[in-house]
Specification:
The complex is a heterodimer of chains A (about 325) and B (about 375). Chain A is about 35% helix and about 30% strand. Chain A has 11 helices and 14 strands. The radius of gyration of chain A is 24 Å and the shape is elongated. Chain A starts with a strand and ends in a 6-residue tail after the last helix. In chain B, β3 and β4 form a beta hairpin. The longest helix of chain B has 30 residues. The radius of gyration of chain B is 29 Å and the shape is elongated. Chain B starts with a helix and ends in an 8-residue tail after the last helix. At the A-B interface, α2 and α3 of A face α1 and α8 of B.
Chain lengths: ~325, ~375
């Protein structure tokens, strides 16, 4: 089994009366793309800033590369790359100069640094913009520059704090593909997001958190297996007698059914032929229906069942 | 490290807002200063146009001839007035047509008629008042001490000045240069805005750039030194440009100690930068709030140094002299005076050492506040 790259135990961080991290635990293994998933304000960024030794915390312990993490843990920092939520570049330096500056904070060898800068430019697809100043770049390109500045030195551990916020779909895909490629090259990635689709798409393990606490952790399959919902069936029904709704709830594997605005929303546990049984019921009782959808559970369903609220609430 | 210095140099120097306030604004002020009173530096009053004046002799008396003598002296020797002797009607027309600035009607007394107010009218009033004051003095003497009347007339007819301008140094600098000392001192203190930006970029709780640099495997001290040197280089270049502008464009004479004056300005600039850095490092308040603090501190220093009330340093020297020993604005301007007018190196060196102590204290405090720091919030 891979060794732990980050181990956080019982981390508590308070902002006056607000508890931002409430006995937060984390164990990230080498080679993972680990997703920290939670709504805005759930403590994802606070957790990362504590791990990076930027934020002081009240209680708990943090180890990175099996060593306690402090502001002067330069050996550990050398192998860490950080892509911050806010774009952090010099406004008056060009794309190439910015990447060169940040890379040279990690790499002393001038030639090696030069080569790495070229690789990073190519990696994020900014070859045609190397002489541009950041203010001349679009939002998506600026995010790519932000990423290049964080990964140019080829770190073993990369923190990415919501790198796709306010990014167009094309740049977003490019960024996600880039993260997978970095992982293939051997980097462990810690990825925070409130976009469940992104977490599902790239993360090998996901921690769902809210109000500074771990709610659930596992692969996306493991997380989905933790909840009751195995399938969600949506059917357009123009008119549904109340008695029928009660009977639908009694069908095997159905544990919840709602009818609102001409739409029947049925939650079933994981079982075979759920859809067939419901369709049979509607036909037998001569209830007209329109379009039918069957969806497997999402991470949003996981979050919804655990917390009672939507991920983006 | 040199690469980081060069990149910081480029980034700071291309910052338009900082460059405007630190370079263009002082150059603009210098130009305005020069346009306002720069010509006084050459000590040549001929550059003032003589005031066109109509003189109407109402009645020929002994007093009238004295007054006429005085007028011809002001016209021929001093080139202050350009006199046209005429009758009152013509004089009135000349005044209406703005051909003259005022009418002097002369009899036993002198009356001045003007149609507007301005510098020229003030000069005419001053001439009239001076004459009337002398006449009153002569009349009073004639009544009280008639035997002294001739001595008084002789004394008053001589143009005597009891003040003589001397300098304690072999400097050729003029008093006008003082106005530009204040400007240079201000430019030095404006280095604090660079320092403030520098300090902000080193604090992870104040800027994303600082966050990124804080997670890098490099000591903050190293980054601080690179940024500080970059800022100092820019300030030094700004001061060199300002000196060059004043010396070559406006021919301002700073005396024989231009290099020591530059050294003073550089030290002042170091002070400004270190003060700005310290203020940035010592508080988590917003950038704008700190700009307000810096402006406030600079104004207090400048006020105590006599920017608004030039007797202020003397008042402080009499009551709380320690403030004068510590006020950095006064230390800078006082150093310029020492070099220009007194050749007093003892006070100059004391001022420089005090400024150097400030720089060391502020830099040390800033580094201590910034290094190895974890923040309570970001």
């Amino acid at each position: 089994m891979s060794q732990s790259i980050i181990r956080v135990e019982n981390l508590v961080k308070r902002y006056k009366d607000l508890i931002a991290l409430d006995h937060f635990n984390l164990d990230i293994k080498e080679g993972e793309i680990f997703g920290l998933l939670g709504p805005n304000g759930s403590g994802k960024t606070t957790a990362i800033n504590c791990i990076l030794s930027l934020l002081a915390f009240d209680k708990g312990s943090i180890e990175v590369f099996q060593k306690p993490m402090n502001p002067d843990s330069y050996d550990s920092k050398r192998d860490i790359g950080v892509i911050l939520q806010n774009v952090a570049v010099f406004e008056e330096l060009t794309v190439q100069e910015n990447i060169d500056y940040f890379c040279s904070l990690y790499i002393k060898d001038k030639k090696k640094c030069r080569d790495l800068v070229e690789e990073a430019i190519a990696f994020v697809g900014l070859e045609d913009f190397r002489k541009f100043h950041p203010r001349k770049l679009s939002g998506g390109l600026l995010r790519r520059l932000n990423i290049a500045c964080g990964i140019a030195h080829k770190p073993k551990l990369i923190f990415m704090d919501e790198p796709t916020v306010a990014v167009d779909p094309q740049s977003r895909n490019k960024i996600l593909e880039g993260i997978l490629e970095l992982n293939r090259q051997g980097a462990t990635v810690v990825y925070t997001t409130h976009y469940m689709e992104e977490a599902e798409q790239i993360c090998s393990r996901i921690l769902i958190m809210d109000q500074g606490r771990n709610l659930a952790i596992g692969t996306k399959e493991e997380l989905k297996a933790m909840i009751q919902t195995g399938e969600t069936i949506l059917i357009e029904v123009p008119a549904l007698p109340l008695e029928s709704l009660k009977e639908i709830k009694m069908i095997k594997h159905v544990f919840q059914a709602d009818y609102q605005d001409g739409q029947l929303n049925i939650h079933c546990t994981n079982g075979k032929h759920n859809l067939i049984r419901i369709m049979e019921y509607l036909s037998t009782h001569e209830i007209d229906f329109g379009r039918v959808y069957s969806e497997l559970p999402t991470l949003n369903d996981v979050f919804l069942e655990i917390t009672g609220k939507q991920l983006r609430d | 490290m040199f690469k980081h210095y060069l990149y910081s140099l480029k980034d700071f120097s291309m910052n338009k807002s900082l460059t405007f306030w630190s370079l263009l604004f002082p150059l603009l002020l210098a130009t305005m200063f020069y346009m306002s009173f720069g010509h006084l530096a050459d000590g040549n009053n001929n550059t003032l146009d003589p005031v066109k004046t109509a003189v109407v002799i109402v009645e020929e008396t002994e007093a009238t001839s004295h007054f006429q003598e005085m007028l011809s002296s002001l016209e021929d020797e001093h080139n202050i007035l350009m006199v046209t002797e005429t009758d009152f009607e013509t004089a009135k027309k000349l005044l209406q047509d703005n051909e003259v600035e005022g009418i002097l009607q002369v009899s036993d007394t002198v009356t001045l008629t003007v149609s507007k107010s301005g510098i020229n009218q003030t000069i005419l009033k001053s001439v009239t008042d001076g004459y009337l004051h002398r006449m009153a003095l002569i009349e009073k003497t004639a009544q009280t001490n008639p035997e002294k009347i001739q001595d008084i007339i002789t004394a008053l007819s001589e143009d005597v000045s009891y003040l003589k301008e001397i300098t304690f140094s072999d400097s050729s600098a003029t008093g006008t240069a003082q106005y530009f000392y204040a400007l240079i001192a201000m430019t030095c203190l404006y280095g604090s805005f660079f320092g403030l930006t520098l300090g902000t970029r080193l604090q992870a709780n104040l800027s994303a750039l600082a966050m990124r640099r804080s997670v890098a495997p490099i000591r903050k001290m190293q980054i601080f030194i690179c940024d500080f040197l970059a800022v100092f280089t820019i300030n030094a270049i700004i001061l060199l440009l300002l000196f060059a502008y004043l010396i070559f464009a406006f021919k301002i004479d700073f005396g024989n100690h231009v290099f020591l004056m530059l050294l003073t300005a550089f030290m002042g600039s170091l002070f400004g930068t270190s003060l700005g850095t310290f203020i940035a490092a010592s508080s988590t308040k917003t950038f704008d709030f700190k700009i307000g603090i810096l402006l406030g501190v600079s104004m207090v220093f400048s006020f105590l140094a006599g920017l608004m009330l030039n007797q202020m340093p003397q008042i402080i020297e009499k009551n709380v002299p320690i403030i004068n020993r510590l006020n950095p604005a006064l230390l800078i301007s006082n150093s310029f005076y020492c070099l220009t007018f007194y050749d007093n190196y003892q006070i100059y060196i004391r001022n420089m050492v005090t400024l150097a102590i400030y720089v060391v204290l502020f830099c040390t405090a800033s580094i201590l506040l910034l290094r190895r720091k974890k923040y309570a919030s970001l």
